[in-house]
Structure formats: structure tokens, C-alpha cells
Amino acid sequence: MVTPMVKLKVRAVGSSAGVILPKEALAHMGVQEGDELFLVENPDGYQVTPYDPNFEKQLESARKGMDAYRNTLHELAK
Questions:
Q1: pLDDT, tens only, 1-32
Q2: H or E stretch at 36
Q3: Which residues of 49-78 are buried (b: 16+ CB within 10 A; e: fewer)?
């Protein structure tokens, strides 16, 4: 599958720099103005994502704990 490529231009934004994302890209990611995006480094370069990688790690730890104590949590929920 060939991924469509969108050319972006880096522009000055005050004393910083930024890029404008097309509304189609924002809609595809499920984000809108004011939402946070994360720039994540991976072996292939960088990825822009709406998902907080630290939250994903915390969620995985919670899932492991819930699996390990499934019976105890079931009893406590009664």
C-alpha cells in the first residue's frame, strides 16, 4: 500500500517554527484545533500522533496488574 505524501513547509511562528497540517490530515487523526499532538522518535524517524506514549505505557502496566489480581479485584467489586 502506498501512503499518500503531503509536502509541508516550515514557517516562522513568533520566535519558533511550525507547520500547518491540512484539515484532511487532522480529521484522519481525529484531532482539532487546541488538541495536543506528540512528536515521537522511532527507528524510521519521527511520528506525529495524538496518542501520548507515556500514557500507553502506564495503561499497559495497569492491565498487567489487573490481570495478575483479577480474582481479588472481582471480589472487591462485589
A1: 556 788 899 999 999 999 999 998 899 899 99
A2: none
A3: eeeeeeeeeeeeeeeeeeeeeeeeeeeeee
Distances (CA, A) of 29 to 54, 69, 74, 77: 18, 35, 36, 36
What letter represents residue 16's amino acid? S
Q: 46 - beta bridge partners?
A: 41
Ordered by start, the domain boundaries in the chain are 11-76
- State pTM to two decimals: 0.59
Q: Which amino acid is at 8?
A: L
Do residues 8 and 21 make contact, with C-beta atoms less than 8 angstroms apart? yes
